[in-house]
Design goal:
homodimer, alpha+beta, three-stranded antiparallel β-sheet, two-stranded antiparallel sheet, 4 helices
Chain lengths: ~170, ~170
């Protein structure tokens, strides 16, 4: 939005990340963060998620699932959140490693058996598996990109939330 | 968008859900679904997730994390996806149970330690815990709402993806 006085690698504000790292090193409690969202049901299978003061993220289901097909559905949003998280991880770690990225895309696919969601079977209603394929356009070597990939895989907040069992408390007010 | 000839409970197209249930009962393979999203990095910590032909879901990080603060960040999107998923689950199961919902909201909160994301510690970079609090406005009894809540908790695709360890394959193309 504004001119920067110096060109920044990958347009990443690495000084801000460095300042955060320093504050967490001084006080590890500074790393404890709380994130929030509020969802409003809009009748049928439509709803929207509000985060801070941003425009709501609309949600609906395809017609075959009984929805109005007006927006991505929640499992598609989850895949999108994973891809967006990986993009941040690559941008951050590439910048720290001095790697310039020309382009970065992530293709996400997940397999899901609807039987538990439809009440036709007990058990796991979530994704059975998810694959995220990252395509990077960069002059970095394959070895550098693989080291970058390993770093991102080992530190993705959304990736780890999916790959590990996270305590989830669903409360009826 | 169009007039319906009969009023539908909670505006849910329960006939479409019923048709899907019937097709899965006839052929369980019909329950196997694949979902997808494509993410494009937009430099810095900004990116967007595209799902089918819908408007992209924008993503960015707060300034304190080095971003441009132009959109919800990926972990907030994950919380939003969970709330949107629970909304579908309540709407579907309430309709099947004959419960009319006047309003439904979900407040989501998640605790996340940034040390792993920042590369200051190995281990779990994801949410340590997530709480979703559902507020329902309905004439249904507390017992009916608790039975509904149990049903939704036991069958939420995004909820189960978070609460269980899902095989996640991150591939560098």
């Amino acid at each position: 939005m504004t001119d920067t006085t110096t060109a920044r690698l990958n347009d990443v504000d690495i000084d801000a990340v460095g300042a955060l790292v320093q504050s967490v090193q001084t006080d590890p409690a500074a790393a404890s963060t709380t994130w929030a969202a509020r969802v409003q049901w809009n009748r049928g299978f439509a709803s929207e998620a509000k985060v801070r003061s941003f425009s709501p993220i609309p949600s609906d289901e395809p017609a075959a699932l009984g929805g109005g097909d007006s927006a991505p559905n929640p499992v598609e949003q989850l895949l999108g959140a994973l891809g967006n998280c990986l993009a941040v991880g690559y941008a951050a770690n590439a910048t720290v490693a001095g790697i310039a990225l020309r382009d970065l895309r992530v293709e996400l696919k997940g397999e899901l058996d609807l039987q538990a969601f439809l009440g036709l079977a007990d058990g796991h209603a979530g994704f059975n598996s998810i694959v995220a394929t990252v395509t990077i356009d960069s002059d970095a070597s394959r070895d550098e990109l693989e080291a970058l990939h390993a770093k991102v895989s080992g530190s993705s907040p959304v990736g780890h939330t999916i790959a590990h069992a996270v305590p989830l408390d669903l409360v009826l007010a």
